[in-house]
Amino acid sequence: VRLLISETTADRFTDNQIDDLINQGQLDVANRTEYLTSSWTLNTTADKRTYRLPPDCLRATRLKLANKWLSKTSHEDLDLEYTREEDETWITETGTPTHWYEEREDVIGLYPIPDDAYTMQLWGVQKPDTLSDDSDESILPEFLHEAVCLYAAYWCKEQDREFDAADRLWIKYLEAIKTAIDLKNKRKVEGPLKMVLSEDYYPLSPEDY
Questions:
Q1: By C-alpha distance, which of 90, 70, 93 is closest to 81?
Q2: The CA-based dihedral angle spanning residues 137, 140, 142, 146, taken in that order and rounded to the nearest 10 degrees
Q3: Which of 74, 128, 146, 184 would you call most buried, defined as having the most Cβ atoms within 10 angstroms of its Cβ?
Q4: Which helix (H) or strand (E) holds 120?
């Protein structure tokens, strides 16, 4: 990272600050590429609507109850489809869950609210281990380590208000992410990556992690 920001020794950024950015980069890379995946058991409780993800699960991607997949939905879609009467909304209905949705970053909700204790299988993106020592190694595939460094360097340049340099690093970061996803999907890269200057393509600020 220090080579990318032309700071070979601690000056503008301390080692701890860079370590924090590297750990945030691991989360962003893992989330975007889905190279680290795992499964967990989710046990429900009767009349309980929301459930916190396991500590090492970054994001849920699929849920299964017995031999049936639950459909992913959202608050908005449920409001449109399942509201029966003005005084009776989907958020109070109980039964065997058929849908799941993201309640917030680390919490999912089930619809209908479980009417009994069920054992579900949850699949999702695994959260990389936090790196705290120079000897620690990321569990991300080695070819993704450069992307993590580009992410950290991008934020260093952003904080220094060197926006042109930051944009160049962000383009390289997105290119690395795109290449990784193409490799994962075992298909050719379909042309050069176009830079899109929208909030959707820029990361959350470090404070958001």
A1: 90
A2: -90
A3: 128
A4: strand 119-126
Contact 111, 100 (CB under 8 A): yes
* Alpha-carbon span 27 to 20, nearest angstrom: 11
Please name the helix (run of DSSP H) or strand (run of DSSP E) that holds residue 169, with its range, or none. helix 163-184
If one counts every other C-beta atom within 10 angstroms of the C-beta of residue 70, the result is 19
Q: What's the one-letter identity of residue 160?
A: D
- The Cα–Cα gap between 7 and 104 comes to 38
Order of strands, sheet of 107-111, starting from the edge strand that comes earlier in the sequence = 50-52, 107-111, 99-104, 71-72
Asked if residue 87 has pLDDT above 60, the reply is no
- DSSP code of residue 9: S
Of 31-45, 69-83, 95-109, the one with minimum mean pLDDT is 69-83
- Torsion, Cα 111 115 119 123, to 10 degrees, reads 10
Rg for the chain, CA atoms, rounded: 21
* pLDDT per position as a tens digit, 14-54: 888 998 999 999 999 999 999 999 999 999 999 999 999 99
Q: Is residue 108 a contact partner of residue 75, using CB atoms and an 8 Å limit?
A: no
Distance of CA 176 to the CA centre of its chain: 17
DSSP assignment, residue 85? B
